[in-house]
Design a protein that fits this description.
The protein is α/β, with parallel strands linked by helices and about 325 residues long. The protein has a single domain, classed as Metallo-beta-lactamase, Chain A (4-Layer Sandwich), CATH 3.60.15.10. It is about 25% helix and about 25% strand. It has helices spanning about 5-15, 70-80, 120-125, 145-150, 170-175, 180-185, 185-200, 255, 270-285, and strands spanning about 40-45, 50-60, 85-100, 105, 135-140, 165-170, 205-210, 215, 220-225, 230-240, 240-245, 290-295, 300-305, 310-315. The strands form two sheets. The protein has a seven-stranded mixed beta sheet with strand order 1-2-3-4-5-6-7. The chain has a seven-stranded mixed beta sheet with strand order 8-9-10-11-12-13-14. The longest helix is centred in the last third of the chain and has 17 residues, at about 270-285. It is globular.
């Protein structure tokens, strides 16, 4: 006879309630740890070594998170993905790419700004055995605070003293424009100020790049506008293998891969962001490319498959490397 959930729960409850004759409570010899192990995961793309570094997460209210969908629809998708409803848990994952000749960071995390649940990047970098002084190049995808603040964390001192910093030309043109800052709504003023806080002291040394440029050997900038004016994705290629780094093309894929027409509150030009999303997810699905997504659950890498009118993010299987 099939066991129903009710029958199963009743039987296990009864078993748990049955005392063992002469038994005493059994306590573990080791105390509860209470903290997570370091968020570090390594994988290969051809001859390149990729290190995924967790930087924690933010919680954002489901209400208003998607500009063209109500909270009920967002909560339904969160429930479908076995996530808590009411708030969207947004993870952050920075990538370190060791090409053999260059150690490159793709974005730099939150720098400990914004929430006590974020800011793990520096500790995880150390746990990964990476000395900040050994980083050769930092390539920034766009200027939102959770991508650039690790360059100059809340303490105000630069983290990567020897690294060349590269940024998208249209992103620099927009965020460093005083007229655009003056015209921006109050809610955006903090982002403009953070850009100046991070890049102001080093402005003369920042190198701007264009879409289509090979920034270092094997890493090419891909146009991905809409989320911000200069938002950039990357192709990381070695030998016959390519990793498509989506940056913020999807935000959390449980929402924005499933519903590529949804526009996140952070998408500055929602219609262009949607077109970019379809273009890159179509490419990833058609070519069966491995992808990395900044806001996917750690270690934030896997594949994209077409599913109905949307897509599905399929996490990569854990490997011993």
């Amino acid at each position: 006879m099939p066991i129903s959930r009710r029958t199963f729960m009743a039987s296990t409850t009864a078993l748990a309630a049955t005392p063992l004759i002469g038994s005493t409570p059994l306590l573990a010899k080791a105390p509860l740890v209470g903290v997570q192990a370091p968020g570090v995961y390594r994988y290969k793309v051809g001859e390149f070594e990729i290190t995924a570094l967790n930087d924690g997460f933010f919680n954002r209210p489901a209400e208003g998170f998607v500009k063209n969908a109500d909270a009920a629809a967002v909560n339904a998708e969160l429930a479908n993905a076995f996530m808590a409803t009411g708030a969207v848990k947004i993870p952050f994952t920075v990538l370190a790419v060791n090409t053999g000749s260059k150690l490159v960071l793709l974005d730099t995390g939150t720098g400990g700004l914004g929430a006590p649940t974020a800011g793990l990047f520096a500790a995880n970098l150390k746990a990964a055995g990476i000395n900040p002084d050994d980083v050769d190049t930092i390539i920034i995808s766009h200027f939102h605070p959770d991508h650039i603040s690790g360059i100059r964390p809340k303490e105000g001192l630069p983290t990567f003293k020897n690294a060349e910093v590269m940024v998208p030309t249209p992103e620099w043109a927009f965020w460093m424009d005083d007229a655009k800052m003056a015209a921006a709504p109050e809610a955006a003023q903090g982002a403009f100020k953070n850009v100046r806080r991070v890049f102001g002291p080093m402005a003369k040394d920042v190198k701007q790049y264009k879409w289509g440029d090979e920034l270092v050997t094997g890493i090419t900038a891909i146009a991905a506008p809409g989320h911000t004016p200069g938002h950039t994705a990357f192709a990381v290629a070695s030998g016959k293998e390519t990793l498509l780094v989506l940056s913020d093309t999807t935000n959390h894929p449980a929402l924005f891969a499933t519903h590529p027409d949804w526009m996140a509150i952070f998408d500055m030009d929602g219609e262009t962001a949607k077109q970019t999303r379809y273009k890159l997810l179509d490419m990833a699905a058609a070519d069966k490319m491995q992808v990395a997504a900044y806001h996917a659950p750690f270690p934030a890498t896997g594949n994209i498959v077409k599913k109905g009118t949307g897509y599905e993010f399929v996490p990569a299987k854990w490997t011993s490397f």
